[in-house]
Amino acid sequence: MGRTVLTVDDSKAIRDMVAFTLEPEGYRVIGAEHGADGLEKFRSEAVDFVITDLNMPVMNGIDFIKNLRADPKGAGVPVVMLTTESKPEMKAEGKAAGATGWISKPFDAAMLVAVAKKLAG
């Protein structure tokens, strides 16, 4: 397998759709149910690209990104928010936390593949 993608979302359906979209393109996809689970998996795996939801239990996407960026391992890893939230102030908060980009749900499969190829190779 090629690059590893960590998808952090409390919706199993979204995690499955991301995997269904990216795995045929050669990506290995690891799923996490919330930010704390995502951090644990990020720290134990070699991850090339992260896709995270914003609104999740236990730890939301903003706090997840802040924690990931505080870890030296997370400094250069691209992180894209994949969420239903589209308010400009939320996008600004995501960017301030360290998000590389923002994709609105429901996502377009071709666009997700293009973003993964651009950011993770």
Work out the count of structural domains.
1
SS content category: alpha/beta
For this structure, what is the CATH homologous superfamily? Response regulator
Kindly identify the CATH topology: Rossmann fold
Going by CATH, the architecture would be 3-Layer(aba) Sandwich
User: Would you report the number of β strands?
Assistant: 5
The sequence of SSEs as H and E is: EHEHEHEHEH
Given this structure, which CATH class is correct? Answer: Alpha Beta
Overall average pLDDT: 91
Distance between the termini: 13 Å
| Beta-strand fraction estimate | 15-25%
Write the layout of secondary structure elements.
Elements: E1 4-8, H1 12-22, E2 28-32, H2 35-44, E3 49-52, H3 61-70, E4 79-83, H4 88-97, E5 101-104, H5 109-120
Parallel strand pairs: 1-2, 1-3, 3-4, 4-5
Describe this structure in words.
The structure is a single chain. The chain has 121 residues and is α/β, with parallel strands linked by helices. The protein has a single domain, classed as 3-Layer(aba) Sandwich (Rossmann fold), CATH 3.40.50. Helices cover 44% and strands 19% of the residues. Strand 3 (49-52), helix 3 (61-70) and strand 4 (79-83) form a beta-alpha-beta unit. It starts with a strand and ends with a helix. The mean pLDDT is 91.
Keyword list:
single chain; five-stranded parallel sheet; 121 residues; alpha/beta; globular
Summarize, please.
With 121 residues, the chain is α/β, with parallel strands linked by helices. It contains five helices and five strands, in the order βαβαβαβαβα. A five-stranded parallel β-sheet has the order 2-1-3-4-5, sandwiched between helices.
